[in-house]
C-alpha cells in the first residue's frame, strides 16, 4: 500500500468513525416509547412541481382548524380559515365533515369569523364564537337539526374560552371585567389611563385597562336572562372545565395578593351552586388546561410543578379531584407537552390533550425533534405509546368514540393543514381543501440534516432553489433563517414564508439550535441567561455544514429572523462579518431597556437573568447594542407600531446606531400591527412585509 493510499484509508476510517459516533448521538435522542403500527409508517411526502410560489398565494389556501368529533361519532366539525383579498380580512367558516367519506359541507356562510366550534354533549347543538354582530367575539349556538344560529352572550367585552355543561344547556365562559364600571356617556369622564396592575398591556390586545378574566354562566334555553358571574375579586381566571356530574367547574387562577407580578398559578374547583372555592395545588407551580377524568375522580393538567427550577419543558399531570400532590405521567419522557412548532400557515389551534373515554389513559400532543406527535400516557405507569407518524406538524386532534382512532389536523413539508383519520391500518385523508391549488405550484421538499456543534447534535433543514444541487457550479446564495422563542421549534411542515426565499432563487437553511423545544429540558435551558453566547456556535456551525454540502456560495450569505430570531440576527451581525445582508424583524437590541417596556419580561421572558438593577453587567453583555460598533452588514429593520412583545424602541435604537455608524440600513414601521404581523396581521401588510424582505436580499445578495 502506498503512502497516499494509507493516508486515504486512514482518512476514510476517521470519517466512518465520525458517522458512527454521530449515529450513536442521534440514536440517544430517540425517546423511550413504544410505537403503534400507525406510528411506524413513514408519512408520504409529495414532490410538488408546477409554477413557483408567489407571495400572494397566501390568498389561495384554506387552513383547517381543530377537529371536533360529534358525540355519535359520525362526523367532524372544524373551522376553516381563508383570506378575503378584496376586504383585506380573514374569514373562518364552520364545516361539517362526514366520516363515511361523503363530501364536506359548510355549516356557516363564511362571511364572518366563526371559530372554536364545540358540540353539546347530547349532540343537538354546536356552540361557537363569532364576530358576526359585535366586533368582539360572542357565543352562538347552532341547532344541528337545522335553523339559524342563536346569540347567547352580549356585551362590549365579548366572550372568551367556553365549555358546555354535561346537561347540554349551560355554558361556562370567560369574560374580561373592569374593576369599576365607567359611565361611557359621562362627558366629564377622563380619557387618562390610570394603571395599577403590572400586567397592564398584552401584545395583540393592547392596554388591558385593569380588566381581568372572570368565569360566567349562561344557558341556551334562556333560563338565565343575563349571564351570572361566578368568580369574584381582582384576579385573572381562565380555562373553565365542568365536572362530569355538572356540579363543579375547575379553572386556573392566581388569587394571591401580587398575582400580577408572579409566574405561578393554581388549579381551583368551584361548586357551581354555592360558589364555594377550593384550591387543589400548592402555589409553587404554573398550570393550564384542566380536564376532568370521565369518572370525575381526577383532573389532568399541563404545566410545571415547581417554577423555581425555571424548567422549559412542561409535563402532563393528574391530581385527585379532592386535592393532593399532582402525579406526573411519563416521567422518563423528557419532552415538552403541547405543540411548540413555529411553522406557518397553520390556522386555528386546539386542545393539548384528551382523556380516553374509559379514563385509562390520556392522549396528548408532544413536541419532538422538529415534529409534533400524539402520544398516549397510561395511568398505570406503562411506557408512553407513540400513536402517530413523526416528521410532521400535528396541531390538534380528537378521538373517535372508542379512543382507538384519531382525527388529526396535520401538515407535512409540502402540504398545508388538512384533516386525516388515523387507525392501525394507517391514515386516510378526510379533507383536501388545498388540492386544486397544490396541483398548480412547485414546493421543493426540505432536506433534513443533523450536524455536531459543541458536543450536541443539532437538527436543521435545507431548501434549494430550482436547479440547484450539491454539484452545481452556478452557486446559489444562502440565507439562514432563525426562529423566535427561543423556546420553540421549526418543524418539517409547509411554511409559505420560508418557501418564498427559494421561489426567489435563494437557498434557505433553518435549524433548531440550543434553546429550542422538542428536545430535553437541559437542551432548552442551555440559552437561559446566555442568549447569543450559547447558540451562536450552532448558527455558524450550521452555515459551515450546509456550505460543505456543495452548490452554495460562501460569499453570498444572508441572515434573518423574527423576535428572538431578530435578537439573534442583531447578535450575529455584531460578532461576524460573514453575512453580506440581513433583515431583522420585530427584534431585540437592548436587554436593559427591554425589561419593563415589553408585556412578558416581568413574568416569563428569562427568569434566570434576574433584573437589570441586580445584574447590570449581564443585561448589557447580552445586548446586541453593546456590539453594534462591529456591524458592517447592510441591515433592513422591520417592526410594528403596536408590538408590545418587543417594543418599537428596540428597533429605534438599532436603527439610529446603524445610521450613526454609516451602515446601509432602512427602517420599515408597520402601523396598527402587533408582534404577530407575519402570522395574523392585515393580509396586505403581510404581503408588503415579505416583498420588502425579499427585495432587500435581492439587492445585496
Could you explain how this protein is built, in words?
With 701 residues, the chain is an alpha+beta fold. Among the domains are: 239-308, no CATH class; 330-441, TolB, C-terminal domain (Neuraminidase); 442-700, Rossmann fold (3-Layer(aba) Sandwich), CATH 3.40.50.1820. The chain is 17% helix and 32% strand. The chain is built from twelve helices and 42 strands. The strands form ten sheets. It has an eight-stranded mixed beta sheet with strand order 35-36-38-37-39-40-41-42, with helices on both faces. The radius of gyration is 26 Å and the shape is globular. The relative contact order is 0.10. The mean pLDDT is 92.
Overview in brief:
The protein is an alpha+beta fold and 701 residues long. Helix content is 17%, strand content 32%.
Pick out its properties.
701 residues; alpha+beta; Neuraminidase; Rossmann fold; eight-stranded mixed beta sheet; five-stranded mixed beta sheet; 12 helices; 42 strands
Lay out the secondary structure.
Blueprint: H1 3-28, E1 34-35, H2 37-40, E2 51-52, E3 63-64, E4 68-69, E5 75-84, E6 89-98, E7 105-106, E8 114-119, E9 125-130, E10 138-143, E11 150-151, E12 162-164, E13 170-177, E14 201-202, E15 206-207, E16 212-219, E17 228-229, E18 237-242, E19 248-253, E20 266-271, E21 277-279, E22 286-292, E23 298-304, E24 315-320, E25 327-329, E26 353-355, E27 361-367, E28 372-378, E29 385-386, E30 393-399, E31 406-412, E32 415-423, E33 426-429, H3 435-438, E34 441-442, E35 447-453, E36 456-463, E37 476-482, H4 496-503, E38 507-512, H5 521-525, H6 536-548, E39 552-562, H7 564-573, E40 581-585, H8 591-594, H9 616-621, E41 635-640, H10 648-661, E42 665-670, H11 677-680, H12 683-700
Parallel strand pairs: 1-29, 2-34, 37-38, 37-39, 39-40, 40-41, 41-42
Antiparallel strand pairs: 3-5, 4-5, 5-6, 6-7, 8-9, 9-10, 10-11, 12-13, 13-16, 14-15, 16-17, 18-19, 19-20, 20-21, 22-23, 23-24, 24-25, 26-27, 27-28, 28-29, 30-31, 31-32, 32-33, 35-36, 36-38
